[in-house]
Amino acid sequence: MYHNVLSEDRKWTIRSRVISGGTMKDFVDLRSDTVTHPTPDMRKAMAEAEVGDDVFGEDPTVNALQEKVANLLGKEAALFVPSGTMANQLSIKSHTQAGDEVIIEASSHPYNFEGGAGAALSGVQFQCLKGVRGVLEPSQVEEAIRPNDHHFAVTRLVCLENTHNRGGGSIFPLEKMTDIYRLAKSRGLLLHLDGARLWNASVATGIKPHEYAQSADSVSVCLSKGLGAPIGSLVAGSKPFIDRVHRFRKMFGGGMRQVGIVAAAGIHALDFHLERLAEDHQNARRLAVGLKELKGVSIDPKFVETNIVIFDVANSGMTASQVAEAMKKEGVLIHPIGKTQIRLVTHLDVTSEDIEMTLKAFRKLLKAL
Ligand code: TLP
């Protein structure tokens, strides 16, 4: 059960306060679901958290969170890490050795938005396959597996992303994931799932996180996106795998001390903010349907499956950056992700009134058809 976080928080602050024209202003912030503020109840849970030194494994709140997430994902163990990027990169590092090849979708997060870490920290090369809104076909993966020949890199790992960020929050269908996992197993490969927003996929489909996780050797999940915690991600997998991840977390400097104070926010988020993701999905759909009515906007609302809305403004005569600048003047922050592409993300701090206000601002700018 979730309580109505939004109406409680309204009395407090849920706006992003950023500098605009030299002064601090409040905005409806649709740039990402990473911008959420911890709620008063979450802050209380953090303040009251029992803590210990987690590098010694002695933080009871971290241990409780790890156990909770391992159970949710149906895995033997889970490890708390500072970020989704570290969760993915520790997984890649733990599954591979330098010179190995990782099959991954071309617009995926680990390949595009993690600072080249796969090459720098694990010495792997990526073979990128073009998916449809981030979703790969099992046959594509099969064709990409290198033959056992000394000329080639050793194909070791397949990485999938669910939901897929640049795919527009698209859901990787469970059957396809299962087919790819079966293929990976039959060819001796490992599979890592970037599940930063697996919670969104689960709430949208009713498929439990552990059902998705069954088709992966390792899963990374984030607490600091739709779930609204300020910090934190976890990697889940078998005990020997997590032991390896733990060693590399130390090596990468990701071991934290009395971090139960942060883990408590994650536990609170899982207890109270999971089911409400459905509201974010509804708000995203409303945005997509409203945007479709506007001149110069290209979007198909049927592809908006969760909390991410990606659309094109090529026919508006404006660039994405110009649209973003104009929307900022109207009190709305949005994220240009290409010359004419814009991404909007709904989250805990965005109400249905904010969506109507955003659409009104877009209408003013782009004029209805
Ligand atoms: N994504 C962020 C940006 O980095 C683009 C965002 O605003 O969406 N996997 C996926 C699928 C992600 O979307 C992200 C963050 C991460 C991993 C990395 O998480 P963090 O930011 O915690 O390192």
Which helices and strands, and how do they pair?
Blueprint: H1 5-10, E1 16-20, E2 23-29, H2 40-47, H3 60-72, E3 77-81, H4 84-95, E4 101-105, H5 109-112, H6 117-122, E5 125-129, H7 138-144, E6 155-161, H8 174-186, E7 190-195, H9 198-205, H10 209-213, E8 218-222, E9 233-237, H11 239-251, H12 260-272, H13 277-292, E10 308-312, H14 320-329, E11 332-333, E12 335-336, E13 341-345, H15 352-366
Parallel strand pairs: 2-11, 4-5, 4-6, 6-7, 7-8
Antiparallel strand pairs: 1-2, 3-9, 8-9, 10-13, 12-13
Helix pairs in contact: 2-12, 3-12, 4-11, 13-15
Residues 32, 34, 83-85, 88, 109, 113, 161, 165, 194, 196, 222, 224, 233 line the site of ligand TLP.
Give an overview in words.
- The structure is a single chain.
- The chain is an alpha/beta fold and 369 residues long.
- It is 40% helix and 17% strand.
- The chain contains 15 helices and 13 strands.
- The protein has helices at residues 5-10, 40-47, 60-72, 84-95, 109-112, 117-122, 138-144, 174-186, 198-205, 209-213, 239-251, 260-272, 277-292, 320-329, 352-366, and strands at residues 16-20, 23-29, 77-81, 101-105, 125-129, 155-161, 190-195, 218-222, 233-237, 308-312, 332-333, 335-336, 341-345.
- The strands form 3 sheets. It has a 7-stranded mixed β-sheet, sandwiched between helices. The protein has a 3-stranded mixed β-sheet with strand order 1-2-11. Strands 10-13-12 form a 3-stranded antiparallel β-sheet, covered by helices on one side.
- Helix 2 packs across helix 12 (260-272), helix 4 packs across helix 11 (239-251) and helix 13 packs parallel to helix 15 (352-366).
- It is globular and about 60 Å long.
- The protein starts with a helix and ends with a helix.
- 50% of the residues are buried.
- It binds ligand TLP.
- Ligand TLP binds at residues 32, 34, 83-85, 88, 109, 113, 161, 165, 194, 196, 222, 224, 233.
